[in-house]
Structure formats: structure tokens, C-alpha cells
Amino acid sequence: MKSRPRFQTMRAGNPAQISFRALLVGIALLLSTVPAVHAEQKEVIGDFEAHYVVFPSTFLNAAVAGTYGITRARNLSIVNLSVLDSAGEGAPARIDGQVKNLLGQQSPLKFREIREDKALYYIAEVRHADREVLRFSIAITPPGERTFDLSFQQELFWEE
Predict the structure, then answer these.
(1) How many domains would you assign to the chain?
(2) Which domain holds residue 24?
(3) Helix (H) or strand (E) holding 26
(4) Does the pTM of the predicted model rise above 0.70?
(5) I need a surface site. Which of 14, 16, 59, 106 has the fewest CB within 10 A?
(6) Cβ(135)–Cβ(151) under 8 Å?
(7) Taking the CB of residue 50, how many other CB atoms lie within 10 A of it?
(8) How far are the Cα atoms of 16, 67, 81, 126 from residue 31, in angstroms, in the given order?
(9) Spatial distance between the Cα atoms of 30 and 40, rounded to a whole number of angstroms
């Protein structure tokens, strides 16, 4: 009697066809197992939730990065932010931000919107030195709401 495998292997077609949402779920799962990297975090802002994560751009495969116009480099990380309404659906929002190093040097975060089916994400690229601690300040304005400030600090590493 031939035994069946316990798990079936999922096969993807063209790597560029992998959805950004599926990619982000995979990254969040991967990041949750890496102690030096922060996994996705959440803030409640009024009737909305802001979910955010910062991860090395090298975590993306070349095809997916190319599809979304993301540069892959060891000194470049991605800030990913999504705003969810009370039904858990992606909500449009105005997102402005800046990042500051411990010396006080600051750079703007240039967020751009990515829509995929019902999912809505805002991403920005941030350059950094190896083991650099950065302070993120992000202003989030959901529809019909006041502006909420999201601030966090994270140490970023170069990925080979």
C-alpha cells in the first residue's frame, strides 16, 4: 500500500504572478521567526487599525520586486503599512512620514499605494547602514478622521 504524503506541495506558476498579499503574509510569517527583525505590528487609530512592518528588500524575489517597482539591495528596507476599517477591509488614507537616525539626520518616507483586489497597501523604501537604529514618524489620515501619529524605532540590518 502506497502512503500518501501528509502535505501537498503548492506550485506557483510565474513567480511574478504571486500576489503581493500572499507575499506579505509569507514575509510576516518569516519575520516572526527571526528574533532580530520585528514582525508585523498594529496600532488602533480611531475606528481603524494600522498594520505595519519593516523588512529587508532582499526578502522579495526579483520577479515580485520588479512587478511592483521595488529595488532590492542589502542596504534598503521596505516600510509596509495598511489601514483597515472596522470590517477588516483596506481603507484609503493619506500617509506621510519621515525617518530619522540617532544623529538626528532625517529623510522623508515617500509612500506609494498598491492595490490588489480588495487589499490596499502603502509602501516606502528606506536606505540604512548595517545595524542602524531608525526612528519612524508616520502621519495617517483615514477617510473622515483626524490625523493619527504612528511612531516607532527599529534597528535595521544588511541582508546578503
Answers:
(1) 1
(2) 16-30+37-156
(3) helix 20-32
(4) yes
(5) 14
(6) yes
(7) 22
(8) 21, 22, 15, 18
(9) 10
